[in-house]
Design goal:
It comes from Xenotaenia resolanae. InterPro entries: FN3_dom, FN3_sf, Ig-like_fold, Striated_Muscle_Regulatory. Keywords: Repeat. It holds the Pfam family fn3. Helix content is about 0%, strand content about 45%. The protein has no helices and nine strands. The chain has a four-stranded antiparallel sheet with strand order 6-5-8-9, with no helix packed on it. It has a three-stranded antiparallel sheet with strand order 3-4-7, with no helix packed on it. A hairpin with a 6-residue loop joins strand 5 and strand 6. The radius of gyration is 17 Å and the shape is globular.
Length: about 130
């Protein structure tokens, strides 16, 4: 489930329960938005190079936080939706560029991309969005 328009650093209370024939017991949890203490800082703003049917995102590493960076995640935001989706989630820590085939994207839609570093403390703050690309 995606929930939009949450403020960073705010604790929200979520409750959920399942229904088969009747509703089951409610489960409740407090979730604080944003990166946890010790998580990495944002990578540098990605820039994009395009070659034929592929595009490559390039970025620079940011502050690693309290533990070494273990991987990177690329998110994309289609112009017709406005919500960030994880596009690639297992980019090795030593990589600062990633090439993807344009067939992964919808034709005629513009996209923004951003990069997030991950360490043992969790997901860090995202980079600034890339320039928009069609």
């Amino acid at each position: 489930m995606k929930i939009k328009d949450l403020a960073d650093g705010v604790t929200y209370n979520f409750r959920i329960r399942a229904k088969t024939l009747t509703y089951g017991p409610e489960v409740e949890a407090n979730i604080t938005t944003g990166p946890g203490e010790g998580a990495p800082g944002p990578p540098g703003e990605p820039f994009i190079s395009r070659y034929g049917s592929a595009l490559t995102l390039h970025w620079t590493s940011g502050d690693q936080g309290r533990a070494p960076i273990t991987r990177y995640v690329i998110e994309a935001r289609p112009s017709d939706e406005g919500l960030w989706d994880i596009l690639i989630k297992e980019i090795p820590k030593e990589v600062t560029s990633y090439t993807l085939n344009l067939e992964m994207l919808r034709e005629g839609v513009t996209y923004d991309f951003r990069v997030i570093a991950v360490n043992d403390y969790g997901y860090g703050s995202p980079s600034a969005p890339s320039p928009t690309i069609s």
